[in-house]
Amino acid sequence: MPTKKAATKTAGKGAAKSASASAAKKAPAKKAAARTAAAVPAPAKKAARKTARKAAAPATARKSARKVAAVEVEEEVEPNTAGGTSLVIVESPAKAKTIGKYLGRGYTVRATVGHVRDLPAKKLGIDIDKGFAPEYVTIEGKEDILTDLKKIAKGAREIFIATDPDREGEAIGWHVEQYFTQPKRHAVSAPIRRVMFHEITKDAVQRSMAKPMDIDNKKVEAQQARRVLDRLVGYKASPVLWKTVKKGLSAGRVQTVALRLIVEREREIRAFTPVEYWSIAADLQKGQQPFAAKLHQVDGKKPEIPNGAEAERILADLKGRKEFEVTEVKRRERRKNPAAPFTTSTLQQEAAKKLGFGSKRTMRLAQDLYEGIDVGVDGATGLITYMRTDSTRVSEDAANAARESLRAQFGNEFLAAQPQLYPSGKANAQDAHEGVRPTDPARRPEAIQKFLTADQFKLYQLIWQRFMASQMAPAVFDTTTVDFAIPTQGRAYLFRATGSVVKFQGFLALYREAREEGDSKALEDEQALPFLEQGERVPVKAITSTQHFTEPPPRFSEASLVKELERLGIGRPSTYASIISVLAERRYVLLEQRRFFPTALGETVEKVMVKKFPDLFDVNFTAKMELELDKIADGETGWVAVLDEEWSKIKKNLHDEDLPALIGEAYDLSALASEQCPDCGGKLVAKGGFFGPFVACEHHPKACKYTRPIKGEKKPAELTSYLCQECGAPMVVRHGRSGDFLGCSKFPKCRGTRSMPTGVKCPKDGGEIAERRSKKRGKAFYGCENYPNCDFVVWDKPVAETCPECGYVGAEAKANKTRGSFRKCIKCGNEWDVHTPEDVEVAEVA
Predict the structure, then answer these.
(1) How many CA atoms lie within 13 A of 218 on its CB side?
(2) Gap between the Cα atoms of 103 and 398, Å rounded
(3) Cα–Cα distance measured from residue 277 to residue 279, given in angstroms and rounded to the nearest whole number
(4) Rounded to 5, what percent of the chain is helix, strand, coil?
(5) pLDDT of residue 42
(6) CA torsion 744→750→751→753, rounded to 10°?
């Protein structure tokens, strides 16, 4: 199915039908008003308008009683100018309302409510032999919208297609244009032009309306090439999964590559062998300021301390040291420049790290801010520029406006030397995409907070702070490196302390980037050092040795996955959110503690797809395909030629000869070699069928009819001591799509089910705490089984451990990189550490 963009493309059918009905009902009143006004002389027009108002009153009342997908901008009482009004077509009702206010009388603004035409839902819809000609049909529920649009278009003076300024928006506009102009005998006569709104403010809208252009057919072809290729992959690759894994699975061209990244990272983690190493550090203090110095060299080389015995030897050499003498001090000034304004990917990354927002949530909120929100006196206005962009460019006007606001808030010394425009080198005839920024830098977040939801405010504040900081002066640090050379009888040791102090805050006065596991340490996070001079002797409080183990690469978070997809060139800004959400919705991955874990199903799908289509789901191939789509959009190559080349790679693997081997990738079939058919004694083999893989006799289906499920005969249900809440019968352990659960032993007569209990009781009402998963994201959480009567919920798995504070048996098993593993009582909130393999030995200074 086609990828739908954010909230604008998911509006319900009801809004569309209401829009059509509303337009039909009020049309007679409008026409009557127009006829009346046209039939009377000029002095009598005022009276005619009053009559028109009365005729139109019922329609106006109905309009105000409910929201509709189309927004009529022209006043009910005003007659149309010669040739009718100008029709402006946008994608969403919210955007229509905002733009309608700016354009005023003489314009009718209508919304398509997302895509209106697409490939058919229940067949391929592509004629491969005729140059991949697509068969487009009207999307179910959009018939009334298109009919209404064409009806208005036939009476319009001119038509402006103002769908979103990207390939998807260009394609939507092209489909509307085709509907208006085909067939020719019913074609609309008014000229059709294309305008793009990169920000929805009054000035920006009026500037764009003054510079209309034609629909860019090259962008349409690029979108069409992506859509056709994705449909070919889905329709031709998915049946392989049905035959080898199970019925109902689907494979996406880009999603499978993203899944491959997650699965391969998981394999790296499993294959990783930790290696022990130790570090030595000295705790020093000058006056009231403590600081640390690490062992930097042993005999002029990087220290290698593989075990505790070697660490003990070093501690023995240093035992008794009461002071360290400063042998060298290096000071220098360093500057840290602010980050550029957000692109789509960096916005998703930072929102995930700083706000905990998923990519889909971030883009939905950004869409709201872009389309317009009522902010009081100014009415509905777009608060940010278009949020789907890979450019960081800033217009000079926006940069100067930000500088004026910053000058008033912080003073001249906090401004960059000149406006920072962050050029990206991309442009088109109307205007280049800018980075994601506030439309009015003077509109501070706290000033409009009361008009926004909590999430909208957080995201707007993040975008505003990042953009404003991009126009500020660099932060200035005084960095210091202090060396302590410690000669001993056996070896020479060098300890080094590094630190930095903020000399001038610059942009840090407003904004700091978030960090997560795997990110490097920022300058502002370094320790502060006291002022030290060469030859000075610093008291030593303790010297410690710490055991460590090398760590595998971290699992992907949403932020790091988006960053990796962007680095590899997989997907484009508008697709990152859908890639991630599709993987979670299909249960190929789980998001636990903000990290992606592949499910067993996800690993199987990845294994089968990569083995069957090694070229198609190769990371480099997918990145190359994105570049090919860019070339189509730029007019450098033809879309049919690109698809013909890619189709040849898909077609060569569309055969069933390797089905047994693929089934072997998905399931462990090693036991089949020693089994015989119980009916005829023949060999048992794996076969693929329409309803999934199965085991059959080698003589099946002609001479022998024996078959059984691929996973073997069903195991007898495991009886538990839990009783069914529906009928009181014992419950048994069953296995479902999302894992094990408890089901009634009297199934199917009784369909009672329960989540698998954790063995920990709810502190609120004593109910059993069980694992549950969110429907959309598949994210695991743990809640009381008495929900909705009890709302107790925790995000980390409860374990049956006793709290040393209150004695309650039940605690969350938590862990982080800073603290390691620890527990948190689910009743009183007390936290306590859990013993880990790391040991710390301290050599006390006499």
Answers:
(1) 12
(2) 22
(3) 7
(4) 35, 25, 40
(5) 39
(6) -30
Helix H segments across 372-414? Answer: 396-410
Measured from the Cβ of residue 322, the count of other Cβ atoms closer than 10 Å reads 10
Q: Tell me the C-alpha distance between 343 and 562, whole Å.
A: 12
pLDDT of the residue at 424: 67
38-93: pLDDT as tens digits:
333 333 334 444 444 434 444 444 334 333 344 433 333 233 333 468 999 999 89
Q: Which residues of the chain have pLDDT under 50?
A: 1-83, 426-432, 836-846
Q: Which of 386, 576, 588, 667 is catalytic?
A: 386
CA distance 573 to 768: 43
Does the active-site annotation cover 386? yes
CA distances for 845 relative to 312, 316, 504, 539, angstroms: 15, 11, 38, 10
Which of 99, 239, 361, 65 minimizes the C-alpha distance to 692?
Answer: 239
Q: Is pTM, for the whole model, over 0.85?
A: no
326: tokens are 């400063």
Q: In 10 A of CB 765, how many CB atoms? A: 12
Residue 807's region, left for phi above 0, alpha for psi from -120 to 50, else beta, is left
Could you tell me which of 475, 467, 473 has the C-alpha nearest to residue 401?
Answer: 467
3-state secondary structure 734-749: EEECCEEEEEECCCCC
Is the CB of residue 820 less than 8 Å from the CB of residue 833?
yes
The confidence score (pLDDT) of residue 169 equals 92
Contacts of 267 (CB under 8 A, 6+ apart): none
Cβ-proximal residues to 776 (8 Å cutoff; 6+ apart), any chain = 581, 584, 585
- What b/e readout covers 35-74, taking b as 16+ CB neighbours within 10 angstroms? ebbeeeeeeeeeebbeebeebbeebbeebeeeebbbbbbb
First to last CA, the chain: 73
